[in-house]
Amino acid sequence: MSSALKSALSRFRLGVERRLWDMWPPVTANKTTRQPSAMWTRRRVRDLSLGERRLQAQVAADPMHLHHFECSEHSQNGEDGIIAEIFTRIGSGTRSFIEVGASDGVENCTRALLERGWSGVWIEGDGQKALAARRMIGSRPVTVVHAFVDRESILAILSRSGAPISPDLLVIDLDGNDYWVWEAIAPTFKARVVVIEYNAVVGPRLNWVMTYDPSHRWDGTRRHGASLSALASLGSRLGYVLVGCDSQGVNAFFVRSSEAQGFSLRRVRGHFVGPRYGLPFGHPRHAFPAFEADPVPEGEAGLVRLRITRPRSSEVRRSGLVYVAAAADNGASVPIGSSASTPVQLANRWINEDGHRLDGEPERSTQNWRADPGSTAHLVGRAKAPEAPGRYVLEFALVQESVRWFDESVEQAGVWTVS
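RE: above sequence
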């Protein structure tokens, strides 16, 4: 096939995909969600494992890669460490920030900077969260504004709040109109660094932006925000360079073009990190239907069983991710899964060569699922490898939160070499 024909087919596929995203139906209250099959789960695990190996190789080959610097003091996905490293390279300037969508101030991207003497403005659309942030900050130098923003109102809100015209850092986390709000802010409030949430489910190639809707409220599905490619194009037009994404596939980091010399510059696909949040990773097409379920009766705990398909590989880098395909067989008389009342989740534990389980709460592979009596649900299990090198046994089990561990469901996923 000629290169011209390949290019034409690629453009056609992207055009069809863009139309499908634009035509995505709204969520309805009675929408049911089809659960993954065994084949789909195995394929998903294979793709996630391949993506993990590629990402780990890329990070290992680049000592300047921003993932080396991830850490969280008050951020959710390691943003604190990345932001600190960016300003180590370009200098901290006036140490001022604006965060749009700052939540309650306990967990966001600028709280750690605030604790280090930075100052700025937090904007939050939820009244209770804004109130909690005001109570929390005390005498710290940050102005908390309760306002629901859109591209028409954002400039007036920032002006009234006394926001710095040239902040060192601008953070935008709106779960919706992020692209449009950045486009509105940039000509007036000229930040040196921008952190903005992207929609990783869209993938690295498609230039897709959610249709602007000033009344938008995120419904928990994949229809929100903009793709990384779209944000990179906007950033380039506004005078910014994409310098990386966090390791969970949530936030993209941009630096002013004039200050980007100290970063590894790649094409969008070279920086892209797929959705590694939630499971089986990425927001769903439709909201998962809520359900209630009683705890599994004491005498039926042994009827809930877990089956693990062991991965072919048995090597993983320190703090790297391991994925497995799992099947939960429900022989009990009540439904199990991610119910609102007594959720059952898949958890993992690492055991060292001495036979001791590592300290700390076992990690959950939290996901939305349901298995009615007599049925099987197919799940994706994820385990973060220990930080210390060595040989470990990895095991998975089902746990009904605040009720019991299903001891009969414990399954080993092999002996792993962590390097």
